[in-house]
Design brief:
single chain, alpha/beta, Rossmann fold, 5 helices, 8 strands, 23% helix
């Protein structure tokens, strides 16, 4: 079977978290294997795509990066429509907020900061919180050091597949090599 005719699954993943916790850095590390030191706030929402194989399925993750600033919360319910998984990202040096009921994966980012000495949230506390919320999968990550990023997004993809809306997408004749510019889409309020 030609690769362009293989059955694929498209999963929409929403990445949530306060401003500055490293949502964009995690996505850039996962998709492009890049980390940028300079901070640039996301405006509205942005997405990247990444293709991976899980068992015998080709999976295309459409990962949506949301602005952490309160002024962009006008994206509203339509933004979440069709989502297969939500990812909560927080900085382990600050306290997380409570999620709403939905299939979530929690990422504690920036574990590289100060050798872990400035942590405000211990791994134990985060795991206990996840357990109390129905055993939400939890990963400690560092976008800067590329620590646990691939593992976390593999779990995100698998979580999304479990909650998939039974939509099989067929891509016919689409080039396997899509430039970074073509992969990125923008949406603003």
């Amino acid at each position: 079977m030609d690769i362009s005719m293989k059955r694929r699954t498209l999963l929409k993943v929403i990445v949530l978290g306060d401003s500055g916790v490293g949502k964009t850095s995690l996505m850039n590390q996962y998709v492009y294997k890049k980390f940028h030191r300079q901070y640039k706030a996301t405006i509205g929402a942005d997405f990247v795509t990444k293709e991976l194989q899980i068992d015998d399925k080709l999976v295309t993750l459409q990962v949506w990066d949301t602005a952490g600033q309160e002024r962009f919360h006008c994206l509203g319910a339509a933004f979440y429509r069709g989502a297969d998984c939500c990812v909560l990202v927080y900085d382990v040096n600050a306290d997380p907020t409570d999620p709403e009921a939905f299939p979530f994966v929690l990422l504690g980012n920036k574990i590289d900061v100060d050798g872990g000495n400035s942590r405000a949230v211990s791994e134990k506390k985060a795991r206990e919180w996840c357990a109390s919320k129905g055993n939400i999968p939890y990963f400690e990550t560092s976008a800067k050091e590329d620590y646990n990023v691939d593992e976390a997004f593999l779990c995100i993809a698998k979580t999304g597949m479990i909650n998939e809306h039974e939509q099989e997408i067929y891509f016919q004749g689409i080039s396997e090599t899509v430039s970074e510019a073509e992969q990125r889409g923008r949406c603003a309020c």
